[in-house]
Automatic annotation (TrEMBL):
Localisation per UniProt entry: Cytoplasm
Family named by the database record: Belongs to the GrpE family.
Organism name: Acidicapsa dinghuensis
Segments for region (Disordered): 1-48
SUPFAM superfamilies: Coiled-coil domain of nucleotide exchange factor GrpE, Head domain of nucleotide exchange factor GrpE
NCBIfam families reported for this sequence: PRK14140.1 (NF010738)
Protein name (database record): Protein GrpE
InterPro entries membership: GrpE, GrpE_CC, GrpE_head
Highest taxon in the source lineage: Bacteria
Assembly and oligomerization: Homodimer.
Basic and acidic residues compositional bias, start-end: 26-36
The UniProt record lists the keyword Coiled coil: yes
Amino acid sequence: MAKHKEESTIDQTAEPNELTVVDYPEEAKEAAEAQKAEAAQNGDAAATVSADEFAALKTERDNLLDRLARLQAEFDNARKRQEREKQEFRDYATGNVVEQFLPVLDNFSLALKAEGSAEQLRTGVELIVKQMDEVLRGLQVQAIPTVGQEFDPRVHEALGSVERNDLPDHSVAEEIRRGYKIRERLLRPAMVRVVSNPQQTEA
């Protein structure tokens, strides 16, 4: 019993920093070897589980890549379909507008073939212009008021000034090119000449 106690203790006669550990008894050695064997067995099992997990992750990755490719194809098809529908709508809207101007074009062709006097030709052109104005009104396109109106840089474009005493200063004296807007959206500004009234300027 005393001998077993000596083998399981540390040699106290060694130098302070050189502790000597004596051998463990046979039972302790057997327990250590059994623990090592169990750890090795657990390691093999862990390696097997890791391989299974890797295979599962690889399958999941392949499924995600396949799904991503399908979504990309669906997105491309939807984009192409949307562009095609937009083009078809644009063509349809343009066709409706052009269709309304075809009678105007027909009347211009008839006027060019007419052999009447200059006055008759002028009357015919005036009727065509009136017809075109009616078509524009049907499309919600309105001419911008000009002569006699106060100059508005939002809808008028000044190409010069005219000195006059019979009109208010800074009002529109002459329309050079008609401007149009569709509802509240400006299509093009009206080109005008603006009044310069010396009497009002000096006052």
